[in-house]
């Protein structure tokens, strides 16, 4: 089985590539930057530099390696990324996803897994977000991710392609580059600095540890019943910054944590209903928020 991972240098991509290599699968990383992939020493791994909005380059890679499965995580992957350059988000996320799907059709790829986002729901007032909840994205990023889902759905229905979209909330773990409250607080404390902020204590986010996301992708790769479905992948509950600080205090007993009321400016998306993930994929997160943060801490310290 030959698997292409787009966005192979992103947080999810890096962990996924390493996991797939542990299964002795042939893996091709595809990313605009080589970064961490250059350190991978495995006869099962190849890296190709390229952008998902470059159709010719992408198609050449599919042909060269006789790819069977694509996990598409390439593109802008943060709700606040390139906020001042919406054309960048649109070109990369919408055109890039369109290219992956069309190249997949032309080269008869056996399965495509599209990594979508809980950002497609926006500031919904629902108590729990089901896959059938009407999307109401509140950001350009969210719009691009739901557009990718719609494209995937049409390619599945019109061309009979095996495609699954996974809606993923806020992913945390060692190696994350873009901002998130856990990363910010943990890295600041590791530097020996006190964590003092005017606001952010009340921000509530559904977090999921990166290794749980990789497990969900692996289950999807090996599941025929998921074809054509959109599935929420999460923990099903929100965590406040105040709760995160409580965990950090155990790790850094000598550090002062003082974060004022209010949020960090992220959409307050209600928790995901993840019953379909359990029923179809037999997926349940293995890491609690505390377990994930503690492993994250240990990896950064090592």
UniProtKB/TrEMBL annotation:
Domain of life of the organism encoding this protein: Bacteria
Residue intervals of the NAD-dependent epimerase/dehydratase domain: 3-234
Native organism: Oceanobacillus sojae
Family per record: Belongs to the NAD(P)-dependent epimerase/dehydratase family.
Record-linked Gene3D superfamilies: NAD(P)-binding Rossmann-like Domain
Name of the protein in question: NDP-sugar dehydratase or epimerase
Transmembrane feature ranges: none
Coiled coil location: none
Pfam families hit by this protein: Epimerase
């Amino acid at each position: 089985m030959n698997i292409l991972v787009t966005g192979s240098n992103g947080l999810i991509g890096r962990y996924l590539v390493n996991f797939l290599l542990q299964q002795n699968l042939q893996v091709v990383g595809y990313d605009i930057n080589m970064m961490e992939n250059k350190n991978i020493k495995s006869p099962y791994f190849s890296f190709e530099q390229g952008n998902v909005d470059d159709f010719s380059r992408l198609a050449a890679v599919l042909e060269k390696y006789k790819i069977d499965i694509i996990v598409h995580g390439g593109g802008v992957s943060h709700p606040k990324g390139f906020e001042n350059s919406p054309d960048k988000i649109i070109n990369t996320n919408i055109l890039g996803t369109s290219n992956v799907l069309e190249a997949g059709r032309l080269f008869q790829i056996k399965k495509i897994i599209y990594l979508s986002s809980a950002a497609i729901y926006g500031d919904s007032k629902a108590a729990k977000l089901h896959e059938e909840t009407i999307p109401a994205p509140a950001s350009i990023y969210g719009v691009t991710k739901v557009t990718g889902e719609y494209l995937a759905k049409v390619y599945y229905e019109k061309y009979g392609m095996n495609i699954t979209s996974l809606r993923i909330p806020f992913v945390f773990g060692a190696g994350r580059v873009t901002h998130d409250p856990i990363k910010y607080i943990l890295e600041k404390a590791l530097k020996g600095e006190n964590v003092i902020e005017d606001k952010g204590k009340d921000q509530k986010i559904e977090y999921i540890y990166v290794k749980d996301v990789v497990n969900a992708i692996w289950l999807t790769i090996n599941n025929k019943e998921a074809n054509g479905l959109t599935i929420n992948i999460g923990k099903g509950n929100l965590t406040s910054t105040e709760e995160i600080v409580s965990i950090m205090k155990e790790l850094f007993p000598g550090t002062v944590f003082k974060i004022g009321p209010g949020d960090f400016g992220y959409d307050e998306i209600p928790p995901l209903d993840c019953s379909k993930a359990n029923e179809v994929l037999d997926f349940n997160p293995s890491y609690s928020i505390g377990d994930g943060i503690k492993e994250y801490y240990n990896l950064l310290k090592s």
